[in-house]
Amino acid sequence: MPVHVYVAGPLFNEGERWFMEVLEARIAAAGASTFLPHRDNPDKTVDNMAEIYRNNVGAIDSADLVVANLNGIATDDGTAWEVGYAVAKGIPVVGLFTDWRRRFDDEIVNLMIGESSEAIVRSLDELDADLASRLGGG
């Protein structure tokens, strides 16, 4: 049975959704099954927000790993919640931060996110290597 990965990150514009799809494809290519919220949920409406919330929580509950896109001057608030929830459930988190902007001199991301993550990788190639070691491919 493949490792199941919840793919967390911002989804507020076409560029963010495109990058999340690139990220998900890399994770799937490493041999994992994935849950990608904007792909695996219905389109959000005022009537189904509770359903989407339940779907996302259930997907994290069943995940073996969360890979979180932490790019941006501040981590997306929904992504930060997903990271915190996963950590509280004992699910490991790998953060991806390819952004060259920094808010802190001695931290890559906010210390609470950084310390919650088993690893912070700085490129898609580093993510591939991390996944290969976790999934037995390298």
Shape assignment: globular
What's the SSE pattern? EHEHHEHEHEH
Largest sheet: 5 strands, parallel
Low-confidence stretches: none
What would CATH call the architecture? 3-Layer(aba) Sandwich
Q: The CATH topology is what? A: Rossmann fold
Q: State the share of residues found in helices, binned by percent.
A: 40-55%
Number of continuous helical runs: 6
How many strands? 5
CATH class: Alpha Beta
Work out the strand percent.
5-15%
Radius of gyration equals 14 Å
Query: What is the arithmetic mean of pLDDT?
Result: 94
Strand neighbour order, sheet with most strands: 2-1-3-4-5
- How many discrete structural domains? 1
The CA-CA distance between the termini, in Å, is 18 Å
Class computed from helices, strands and strand pairing:
alpha/beta
What is the strand and helix layout of this fold?
Elements: E1 4-8, H1 14-29, E2 33-35, H2 37-40, H3 49-61, E3 65-69, H4 77-88, E4 93-96, H5 111-116, E5 119-121, H6 124-135
Parallel strand pairs: 1-2, 1-3, 3-4, 4-5
Describe the structure using short key phrases.
single chain, 138 residues, alpha/beta, Rossmann fold, 5-stranded parallel sheet, 5 strands, 14% strand, globular
Please tell me about this protein's structure.
It is a single chain. This protein has one domain: Rossmann fold. It is 46% helix and 14% strand. It contains six helices and five strands. It has helices at residues 14-29, 37-40, 49-61, 77-88, 111-116, 124-135; strands at residues 4-8, 33-35, 65-69, 93-96, 119-121. Strands 2-1-3-4-5 form a five-stranded parallel sheet, with helices on both faces. The protein is globular and about 45 Å long. It starts with a strand and ends with a helix. The model has no long low-confidence stretch (mean pLDDT 94).
